[in-house]
Specification:
By secondary structure, the protein is an alpha+beta fold. Helix content is 63%, strand content 13%. It has helices at 3-25, 29-45, 47-53, 60-73, 78-89, 96-110, 126-140, 171-185; strands at 113-120, 143-150, 158-162, 165-168. The longest helix is centred in the first third of the chain and has 23 residues, at 3-25. It is globular.
């Protein structure tokens, strides 16, 4: 991992831990989880929002006012709004995507859950997602949330990542392995 990325993750993790501990202490974890989901969806949907948060052009005050206005419009709770305002004041908004990821991880760990990243060649149906979650639960011993995405270049099959483990059953990977085997023979 590069040094700037490591520093960003460290900063984000410190804010996430503080916010998580505060929400846990005040028994507002479900509200924080809802707010983090809304913030994550907004970041995923808006290139402008992501660009704004990483822009050095705006002053601290402008960033703080804009992020508070965004939080009000998105109906985010006071705890997350205040954290975002503080991050704007300290010029730390560029780590908000990592903050969202870190908070999701802390909340899932607290609930005894784990998230599996699943990339498939075509979109999985609800019954397929449920069956995959049940199968993974047997393997890892925890409830599994599926974070599914589609990559048509896989041709068929899927790639499943749970923690540091990865299972690649894609046809693309099998073809690459076959190609390497053929090179070794010839």
């Amino acid at each position: 991992m590069s040094e700037p990325a490591s520093i960003s993750n460290g900063v984000a993790h410190r804010y996430a831990t503080a916010l998580f501990d505060l929400a846990l202490g005040e028994k507002k974890l479900p509200a924080l989880e809802k707010d983090i989901t809304a913030l994550g969806e907004a970041l995923d949907a808006s290139d402008d929002l992501r660009g704004f948060m990483s822009s050095p052009v705006y002053s601290r005050g402008e960033m703080q006012n804009a992020v508070v206005a965004f939080a009000k419009k998105a109906k985010l709770g006071g705890m997350l709004t205040n954290t975002l305002a503080l991050m704007a004041q300290k010029r730390r908004l560029f780590v908000v995507p990592q903050l969202v990821t870190a908070l999701r991880g802390l909340i899932a760990e607290h609930k005894g859950e784990v998230t599996a990243e699943v990339v498939s060649a075509k979109a999985l149906s609800k019954p397929q997602v449920n069956e995959l979650a049940k199968t993974l639960k047997k393997q890892v011993g925890k409830d599994v949330n599926i974070d599914a995405s589609v990559d048509e270049s896989l041709i068929g099959g899927m790639i499943v990542k749970v923690g540091s483990k990865m299972i690649d059953t894609s046809i693309k990977a099998k073809l690459a392995a076959l190609q390497n085997t053929m090179k070794e023979v010839g």
